[in-house]
Each structure stands twice: as structure tokens, then as C-alpha cells.
Design brief:
alpha/beta, Rossmann fold, 26 strands, 7-stranded mixed sheet, 31% helix
Length: 512
């Protein structure tokens, strides 16, 4: 290998300890190369580096210390990436919050994180502009950002659990208030090394990066790009039309996102009469962040003409399993465990269940978080002795050594004394001709039982008849698993990262 070729390899494993060191590697050896491809133009390593330097100096000048929290109210943009790297450089923790959150939520996140100050990505987001005005924000040294006044009473986080932390992400809060999850540099770098390996990620790859960088999904994508030297075709909001253009003309080679967003994308193409995309460089598809049902998997693969990969992970554990590169499977396995990951499948008493049986997933490995920020009770319940994280997710290991996800423990529905897993019912609903997407949720009834409710989105031009769906379900599922009521809706409410907000669906359902 020539010296020139060696100079463009990722840094050797173990030589990089922080995200900004990974960035500095590429900034030093290839400063003019584009790292971010944005609608308004490309941003090179050198240009982004200047932005990082400016913000790092600003953070130091206003008194930000190592282990302080910096809340970033942002949508995807170069300024937010620069802020993440600047926080890394000074030892502060970047705490990302999507700018589309409500003002009361932003204020709650600021309190929860005990943030030293708050930045707003005002260049790309009208929502961020409105929130910045509410907080009397002032211009940052970096154009495109505004910031609040620093709080003198915020205090750095002490203790060994805070060692090596780079960021906090807020969990989606399916069971109550969102929790602030601590994420370490080492966890993100391990995720990145796995991406280089199992996704064969290289310097010439380009991610289509529309998943918010305020979410762990986006943060993982960023870390993989920083370590591998590949680039990001980054967008601040998702647009099907823009994706079509990016696949055709901007050499996008990797496309990944929540399963719900793939369903919406396919629905859009169906309405537009699009049967095939021009995507000469596309080589990798990934649908994650939630269970993937077989019907949607088949639709994605039929449209794109290549396998869709699926995996399992969370904010608290990062990537746990992933289906092998290029492998077609008929089922919706989440793949084998990643290197260094240990998994237990346990019953309600914490005892291991027999192989092939469903139970709660306990995870141990390099990506596991040290806990929740200043939440001793939440940390004690989820992060157990021996380094195990009790995920609250339900799954089982197959005889083939591959993990299959059933759903969330807290979303499991108890009906007539039996367990009903929403993902199983949703898979059957999605198999009904004309259903584009479905969500199932339980609602308590008197006497301790739960009602099974289903919400279905019709395909383009399809008129769904609820009695026909009920008849189909009776042929496919045991009586206790069948929805008592099925609602036809125009769309499913989702978080900014694309997950279905099941509790929001319940708000529109009349009692009785």
C-alpha cells in the first residue's frame, strides 16, 4: 500500500478516544474534502474545523467547564455538528433536543439537564427562532446559532459515572417522563467501529442523514461518519422529493431510518406513481428504531431491489444486534449479536428463560450507558449489578443465533390473562390488502383487563372496510389477540425520530 493510500485510512483502532479526535484525524490529512453535503453547499473538514474552533473558544470564554451540560435546541445543520464537536473538545456534554418540541418541553429539558446554557439552530429552523426569542437568546460567535445567557448556578457533574461522557439524549419516554441517558465517547466509537466492519463503511460512502442528530440514531450515524471518513448528505427535515434527487445525483450509498418512515416513503411513491428510483450508488438499507414487520420488509425490498437490514439497540445500549450485510431473509430477524455484546432473556423474576421463549432482554457490553442523569431510582431499576441493562424490551433468541424483537414490556397488553404483543398484531394487520401501516395499543378496562385497539392507515386510493379487517383477523389470530376496535386514520403520529406515539392515538378514542 502506498503512503498516499495509507494516509486516507481511518485512524487505527484504539488510537482515538473522543469524537473530536476522530474529526481531527481527517481534518489534518484531508482538510479540503467535503464532510457535509447540504442544500446550500458543501462543508469541508477545514471549514467545519474553523466553526468548531470558534465555538470551543466561545464556550471557554463564557465559563463552560468539563462535565457541564450544553442544551442544543436544533435541527440538522452544520452549526449543530460544530457544537457537538466543540463540546467534545472542552469536555462539556452536548444535550440534543429537537427544535420542534413544545416550549414547555424545552424548559423541562433545560431543568432536567441542569444546562449551563442553551443554543438554538436559528439558521435552519423557524421553530428554533421562536424558542430563541422566548429565551431572550443572543447571537453566538458562530453565525447561524443563538444562545441563552449562561447560568452561574449550574454545576459540573461529579463522580466516576460521569467519566468519559460526551452527550445526553432524552429517551422517548414511552412509560412516562423522558429520561436523560448518559452516553460515553467509548460507546459511540465502538458503535462506529462496528459500522466500519458490519456495514463495510468506507471513505467513499455517503449517508443520507435526515434522522435528527438530537437522537441517538443520528448521533450514531455521525460517529460512524467521523471515524470512517465518509460524508453525510444531511437534511434538516425529511422530504421524499429531496431523497429522490439525492439518490440519483448525490451518490448516496446508505439509507437508514425508522420503519415508520420507510412506510410513509413507500406510501408517497405509491401516490405519485413512482415504481422505481434511480439510485446508482445505493448499496445499503437499514430500518431500525422499532420492530419491523414482514409485510413492510417485503415492500421495501421489492421497491428498492435489495435487502433491508434490521437490528436492535436503544439509547441506553446502542447497537446490540444487526442482520448481516447483503443477506436476504424471509423473516424479520434483528440479526446476530454484535462483537462484545452479551444478552440474557429473562422472565419476570429475572431468571433466564429456555431458548426460543420470549422474555425481557438484558444487555451487557461496551455501548451500555452508565445510567440516567441525576436519577438514582431510574438508574437503579434499569442498570443492574454486574453491568446488565434491563431494557424493558421483549424478544427471543432463535436456534439460528439471531435475535427476534417482540415489543416493549410496558406496551405488552394483558387480555383475558394472556400476553398480547402489539408487534405481532400489527404484522397481521399490515398483511391485510390495502393497509399501508398499523399501530396497536392497549387501554385499561375495569377489572384489570385491557382492550386491544388498532389504528390502520389505508394505502393510496384504498377504501378500507373495518368488518372485512375483523374477519381477516379472526382467521389469523387467537380471539384474545384480536382488536376489539379498529380505527381507520389518515396517518400515525410520530416523534421527530419517526417512532409511533401510541399514547397520542389513545387521546382521540372515545370511552366505551
Amino acid at each position: 500500500m502506498t503512503a498516499s493510500a495509507q494516509a486516507h485510512l481511518p485512524p487505527p483502532a484504539g488510537t482515538v478516544r473522543t469524537l473530536h479526535e476522530a474529526f481531527d484525524h481527517w481534518r489534518a490529512i484531508d482538510p479540503g474534502r467535503a464532510f457535509l453535503h447540504l442544500p446550500q453547499g458543501d462543508i469541508s473538514y477545514a471549514q467545519l474545523g474553523d466553526m468548531v474552533d470558534l465555538l470551543a473558544q466561545e464556550l471557554r470564554d463564557i465559563g463552560v467547564q468539563p462535565r457541564d451540560r450544553v442544551l442544543a435546541v436544533a435541527e440538522n445543520c452544520a452549526e449543530h455538528i460544530a457544537l457537538i464537536l466543540a463540546c467534545s473538545r472542552v469536555g462539556a456534554w452536548s444535550c440534543g433536543v429537537n427544535a420542534r418540541m413544545a416550549p414547555a418541553e424545552i424548559e423541562r429539558f433545560a431543568r432536567t439537564s441542569d444546562a449551563r446554557l442553551v443554543y438554538f439552530s436559528t439558521a435552519v429552523s423557524e421553530d428554533a427562532q421562536a424558542l430563541a426569542r422566548r429565551h431572550d437568546a443572543r447571537p453566538s460567535a458562530l453565525p447561524g446559532l443563538q444562545r441563552s445567557a449562561p447560568r452561574a448556578d449550574a454545576r459540573p457533574e461529579p463522580g466516576p459515572h460521569a467519566q468519559g461522557v460526551i452527550a445526553m439524549t432524552f429517551s422517548s419516554g414511552t412509560t412516562g417522563q423522558p429520561k436523560a441517558v448518559l452516553i460515553r465517547h467509548g460507546a459511540l466509537l465502538d458503535f462506529a467501529e462496528v459500522s466500519l466492519d458490519v456495514r463495510a463503511l468506507g471513505r467513499d460512502d455517503r449517508y443520507y442523514a435526515f434522522v435528527p442528530m438530537t437522537h441517538v440514531f443520528g448521533l450514531g450515524t455521525l460517529s460512524a461518519a467521523l471515524l470512517s471518513g465518509c460524508s453525510l448528505v444531511m437534511r434538516w427535515r425529511f422530504s421524499a422529493e429531496d431523497l429522490v434527487d439525492a439518490l440519483a445525483h448525490q451518490r448516496v450509498s446508505l439509507l437508514q431510518g425508522p420503519a415508520t418512515l420507510f412506510a410513509r416513503l413507500l406510501d408517497h411513491f405509491e401516490r405519485q406513481g413512482v415504481r422505481r428510483l434511480e439510485a446508482p450508488q445505493l448499496r445499503y438499507l437499514y430500518a431500525g428504531a422499532e420492530p419491523l414487520d414482514r409485510a413492510l420488509k417485503q415492500r421495501i425490498e421489492a421497491f428498492f431491489g435489495q435487502p433491508v437490514h434490521h437490528g436492535y439497540g436503544s439509547s441506553e445500549s446502542l447497537l446490540v444486534s444487526l442482520s448481516p450485510l447483503g443477506e436476504y431473509r424471509e423473516d424479520v430477524s434483528a440479526g446476530p449479536l454484535m462483537k462484545g455484546i452479551e444478552l440474557r432473556v429473562v422472565d419476570a423474576k429475572g431468571q433466564d428463560v429456555a431458548p426460543g421463549r420470549t422474555g425481557e432482554l438484558w444487555v451487557r457490553g461496551p455501548g451500555v450507558s452508565p445510567g440516567y442523569f441525576r436519577d438514582e431510582e431510574g438508574t437503579r431499576k434499569a442498570f443492574l449489578p454486574g453491568g446488565w441493562y434491563a431494557s424493558g424490551d421483549l424478544g427471543r433468541m432463535g436456534e439460528d443465533g439471531e435475535l427476534r424483537i417482540v415489543g416493549r414490556l410496558k406496551e405488552m397488553i394483558i387480555r383475558s390473562g394472556f400476553n398480547v404483543y402489539p408487534a405481532e398484531v400489527e404484522a397481521v394487520l399490515n398483511a391485510f390488502d390495502g393497509v399501508a401501516h398499523a399501530a396497536v395499543v392497549g387501554r385499561p378496562e375495569p377489572g384489570g383487563n385491557e382492550e386491544v385497539l388498532a389504528f390502520v392507515v389505508p394505502g393510496h386510493g384504498v377504501e378500507l372496510h373495518v368488518p372485512d379487517i375483523h374477519a381477516f383477523m379472526r382467521e389469523q389470530l387467537a380471539p384474545y389477540k384480536q382488536p376489539s376496535r379498529i380505527f381507520v386514520v389518515d396517518s400515525l403520529p410520530t416523534t421527530a425520530s419517526g417512532k409511533v406515539m401510541r399514547q397520542e392515538l389513545l387521546k382521540a378514542v372515545p370511552a366505551g
